[in-house]
Amino acid sequence: MRAQFVLSEIGVGLRRNLTMTFAVIVSVALSLALFGGSLLMSDQVSTMKGYWYDKVNVSIFLCNKHDAENDVHCAKGAVTEDQKKQILADLKKMPVVENVTSESQDEAYKHYKEQFGNSPLAGSLTPDQMQESYRIKLKDPQKYQVIATAFNGRDGVQSVQDQKGILDNLFQLLNLMNRGALGVMAMMLIVALLLIVNTVRVSAFSRRRETGIMRLVGASGFYIQAPFIAEAAVAGLIGGGLACVALVVGRYFTIDHGMDLSHKLTLINFVGWDAVLTKLPLILATSVLMPSLAAFFALRKYLKV
Known about the structure:
The chain is an alpha+beta fold. It is 70% helix and 8% strand. It has two domains: 3-53 and 168-303, no CATH class; 57-140, Alpha-Beta Plaits, CATH 3.30.70.3040.
């Protein structure tokens, strides 16, 4: 009987405040969709870091005869065979180095033509203008500075470049976008909480006569509060369900189908469905707990029981 009463009161409360309930559902759905999206973005950045940092190289570019004329780092002339052998021998002795591959001027020219063959500059370049280089795979990508310190300024070395630095700029941008999404999510969450509190207050005020009678006949505080808390929880749960649908649909149409980014951007290792599915229970739990707690504390202040 008590359960039936609580359920009937939930239905009455939701119908009485239909407009505000709808606003609560929409705001909860948007805030939790952003919350889930931010979690997935964080996972995506971590996945990309693990994928790309494992592939980055440190490149040591060697001086050629053109650099000797135009680059202060190559003022002593183009790299000699003895210098190349010594650089390679020193690299292989370093404990941070996993492996070393060399790229000749002809190979560098070929790779440049493959990547930038349509560039106007490509037609004016010749193989002897390209730089020989050593591509170093480090055991720990964070140890780039060890290579830079050892080889920057050495005779025959034009520059030492770390591909990780380029990736760091990309990941900083992605993290900044993720923090922006979290900021929007926080504002939406505050709006949702305020709407929940106002909805509970209006509902409690509209039923003050019923709650007064229940108090006079000895109903417990929890029994009086339960319908209001349940109303907020139901509205939040609907919003959480919509947020889950938005995440699933978004993942399906942007990565798998529709935009089909998984096939168009093959260089990006996108997070899988397992990452999405593990976020859904958290979103649903939050969608129930957040409105319930907001309603509970609102009732303690505005409904004297």
